[in-house]
Amino acid sequence: MYNEECQKEQAEQRKEEIAKVMEADQQARLKAQKVHPLNPPNLRDTLTESQLAEVAKIKWWHSIRLAKNFVTDGLCEHGLGDDVFSRFGMSKNLTGKCVADVGGWDGLFSFRAEEQGAEEVQLFEPTVDDWGNPTEAYHNGFALAKYLRDSNVEKVYSSVYEAHLHRESYFDVVMCFGVMYHLIAPLLALKSLNFMLKVGGTLLLETAVHESKHTANLPAWMVEPGKADDPTNCMYPTKAGLRKSLKAFGFAQIEELAEFPGPRVTCRAVKTGPIMGIDTRRYRGMDEIRALREKRGEKL
Asked: What is the pLDDT of residues 21-75, one digit of tens each?
């Protein structure tokens, strides 16, 4: 009997020690990442043991705040400070805006947009990548994060190529971070991003780029499959190529916001007009072309 009581007491002490270590680790992480002092009004104070167990089962890509004293241990070291989000061009005030997060993984930037007052946020992720590989394992933390944050962000299963077909009205802001260089057809993706935005809407784009002294001023996309030991990497634009592509697909006021090691760049652009002569106020995609041809009695 005495031994059982001792074991129980030791177990309780160990449990308290683990809790203290976890708390200290979380506090250190929060301090290091300079978390914005404003928390969403519905953010819970802490997580239960069962919730912590569910969080531990997931391989998180982003460091996401799930409670006031808990942040996921993400593989991608963006952090959570205002300086991080400003480097990606995110406004501190998105009140009343409709925002799309294309390729948002487990939702860091979607949740941030929601915190900044966005009226509606949709996160787009495909079920398979351009190479036919299932992608759910890489962003399956979103559902849990949404639940724990009591978030209204909506997840839409769609590739970037078809993202514009899932909504009747236009977005005010479209975010597309870390997507373009994984795509086989990045220009087709730019077309879809244009169709998603209203005229005057803002595109925030981050991508890896090709950089060398021989191609510095060359407006091109370089084919580099498997670069950086990632089999899904494919097309890398030069900075000149990215800028010219954005102009060709109806964007102007193109501004480079930040450059990261890799090299990677973040830019902001405004949708100002049609894509190479196509009136994007009327033309939304292949679905409307099919409907028009059917009305005319043409064969598809």
From this structure: 556 555 554 444 444 434 455 788 889 999 999 999 998 888 889 998 898 888 7
Q: Across the strands, what pairs with 237?
A: 221
The reply to whether CATH 3.40.50.150 applies to domain 94-295 is yes
What angle, rounded to 10 degrees, do the helices at 186-196 and 239-248 form? Answer: 50
How many Cβ atoms sit within 10 Å of the Cβ of residue 197?
23
Cα separation, 123 vs 232, whole angstroms: 21
157 residue type, one letter: Y
| Spans of all domains in the chain | 94-295
Helical axes 49-56 vs 141-149, angle rounded to 10°: 150
DSSP classification of residue 214 = T
In terms of phi and psi (left: phi > 0; alpha: psi -120 to 50; beta: otherwise), the region of 103 is left
Counting runs of H as helices and runs of E as strands, what totals does the chain give? Answer: 8, 11
Residue with tokens 């077309």: 191
Residue 56, number of CB atoms within 10 A of its CB: 10
Q: Write out pLDDT tens, residues 131-168.
A: 888 887 667 799 999 999 999 999 999 999 999 998 87
Say if CB 169 and CB 195 are below 8 A apart: no
Q: How many residues does the chain have?
A: 300
Give the helix ranges, DSSP H, for the chain: 2-32, 49-56, 82-87, 108-115, 141-149, 186-196, 239-248, 286-295
Q: Please name the residue that has the structure tokens 């370089």.
A: 222
- Range 259-263 contact pairs with CB under 8 angstroms and sequence separation of 24 or more: 262/208, 262/209, 263/208, 263/209, 263/211
Question: CA dist 189 to 95, 183, 186, Å?
Answer: 27, 8, 5
The pTM assigned to this predicted structure is: 0.78
Q: Considering Cα of 120, then 164, then 125, then 276, what sign does the dihedral take?
A: negative
**Gap between the Cα atoms of 218 and 175, Å rounded:** 26
